[in-house]
Design brief:
single chain, 3 domains, seven-stranded mixed β-sheet, three-stranded antiparallel β-sheet, DUF4350 domain-containing protein, transmembrane, membrane, transmembrane helix
């Protein structure tokens, strides 16, 4: 009875181990506008939508450490200055046909525009309009190219240009988004990074979808290195619960018990002996020796007999 109880115990332990939740390490950040930030001011939901369309490559170290090829580069609310090397890397990216999205209001997005000699700039002054949603901080615009919906901006700046793809009402006439061709690529300037944060998903999810569909690229680079509060060492843990059905648990339990029973009851010594016997028969056959005589000699050797005793 104790023998069979051992098999049942192993089976139960196996099921418990399979049912326990497992942990997976993930990068977690509380940095505003980071794709690793799942709070209201992060861009994790937008990043997930990007991931559904292609490969997401976060840039968490200087640009020189990456081989940035053709694709789409997202720069969302940078608060660290761009060096001349950074701008040169972006310039090469554009010359190779890449697309650069600069979503910024009061940060350092203009470093890139100035370095590329692009005349429209982000004004770093607040855009105001008579038409807003709930309060004057949330500006709505319906004047959008290739999109019949609306976009909600949260305390945006505006672009110093006379024309653009997205603007406020005809009263204030502020440009909120503008596309600029550059070499073989293009730069898209959006004067409000909040358009892409998690808190604005309710308002702008449809725009995200249309905007991404109009981008030409499969690899999407996300600039994290120009976020001063971002740290790649903020590691979190996500728990993955195993959901095994009762039928699956019973099958696994039965297989574990049967497997342990078979292994425990196999006489490995007989298998080894059989292999040894087969080997002796082969030796006897190859050397024209009587197998019974060969076994007799081996037995005598095991008993410690000398040469004369073997004869």
């Amino acid at each position: 009875m104790a023998k069979y109880l051992k098999y049942v115990t192993f089976g139960i332990l196996g099921i418990l181990l399979l049912s326990l939740p497992s942990t997976l390490p993930v990068i977690k950040s509380f940095c505003p506008y980071s794709i690793f930030n799942t709070d209201w001011n992060g861009c994790s939901k937008f990043a997930k939508m990007i991931h559904d369309r292609g490969e997401v490559v976060p840039l968490i170290s200087p640009y020189d450490s990456y081989n940035i090829k053709n694709g789409v580069l997202f720069i969302i609310s940078p608060d660290i200055h761009y060096s001349s090397k950074d701008v040169e890397k972006i310039k090469t990216f554009l010359e190779n046909g890449g697309t650069v999205i600069i979503a910024d209001d009061f940060g350092y997005g203009n470093d890139i525009l100035e370095g590329l000699n692009i005349s429209p700039k982000i004004s770093k002054r607040r855009a105001e309009d008579l038409f807003y949603y709930k309060n004057y901080s949330l500006i709505e615009t319906y004047r959008i190219e290739d999109f019949d919906g609306k976009i909600t901006f949260n305390i945006p700046s505006y672009i110093s240009s006379n024309n653009g793809e997205i603007r406020t009402s005809s009263i204030s006439k502020k440009i909120l988004m503008k596309k600029v061709k550059y070499a073989n690529g293009k730069v898209v300037i959006i004067s409000d990074p909040d358009v892409f944060i998690n808190a604005m998903e309710t308002y702008n999810k449809n725009f995200w979808d249309v905007f991404l569909n109009n981008l030409d690229g499969y690899v999407y680079y996300i600039d994290e290195v120009h976020h001063s509060k971002f740290s790649p060492y903020d590691i979190g843990v996500v728990y993955v619960q195993s959901n095994l059905s009762n039928n699956t648990k019973f099958i696994i339990f039965s297989l574990i018990v049967i497997g342990i029973f078979i292994i425990n009851n196999i006489d490995f010594s007989r298998i080894i002996k059989f292999k040894r016997k087969t080997s002796l028969e082969k030796i006897a056959e190859e050397n024209n020796i009587d197998i019974n005589e060969l076994n007799r000699v081996i037995s005598k050797i095991k008993e410690g007999k000398n040469y004369n005793d073997l004869r």
